[in-house]
């Protein structure tokens, strides 16, 4: 296996283990055993265990796992240009729900890193979440200037919107896997969450 392929294999193995046991509960020896390599190979690619955590985030960014929807979603960009608020928030919602639920291991890893107060959680917040707040908040502020949305702190609206999305995904992934409480598709969830937000902030 080439060096870069081996590095990718180690990272994917580490994600699986970190998402199950957290950073503190996972040893490099366990990562090596699960990846089928020696611990020395782990340290050939990563000087210390914390470097693996940091590399996971960098790897996600490189492989589109953290690409922002406004970077490649033509429907969203068109809706923003036309100021079609319902379509804008629907596209943001469906992108978020699909991404959250397609990479359960990474979502669990982020939750562990936050609970352990690891640097990875802070990096994810500053490099990804803060930019999401800035983009969606900026759109809301623009629509406030247009007189379409009522005056309020746009960040409150963003938090309410993202809160609906992450809570729904956590139910689907962790607490209500059989959808006993609410059995709807991501499309239905995205449409309804967008409408709930807009009915709350429209002027």
Span between N and C termini?
Answer: 59 Å
| Largest sheet, strands/sense/barrel | none
- The CATH architecture assignment of the largest domain turns out to be Orthogonal Bundle
Q: Count of helices?
A: 11
Instruction: Give the percentage of residues in beta strands.
Output: under 5%
Helix content: over 70%
- Outline type: elongated
Mean pLDDT across all residues, rounded?
A: 89
The parts where pLDDT drops under 50 for at least 5 residues are none
Q: Secondary-structure element order, as H and E?
A: HHHHHHHHHHH
Query: In CATH, what is the class of the largest domain?
Result: Mainly Alpha
Radius of gyration: 19 Å
Total domain units: 2
**Could you please say which CATH topology of the largest domain applies here?**
Tetracycline Repressor, domain 2
Model description:
With 203 residues, this protein is mostly helical. The chain has two domains: 3-62, Homeodomain-like (Arc Repressor Mutant, subunit A, Orthogonal Bundle); 69-201, Tetracycline Repressor, domain 2, CATH 1.10.357. Helix content is 77%, strand content 0%. It has helices at residues 3-21, 28-35, 39-45, 49-62, 69-72, 74-82, 85-102, 104-115, 119-145, 154-175, 186-201.
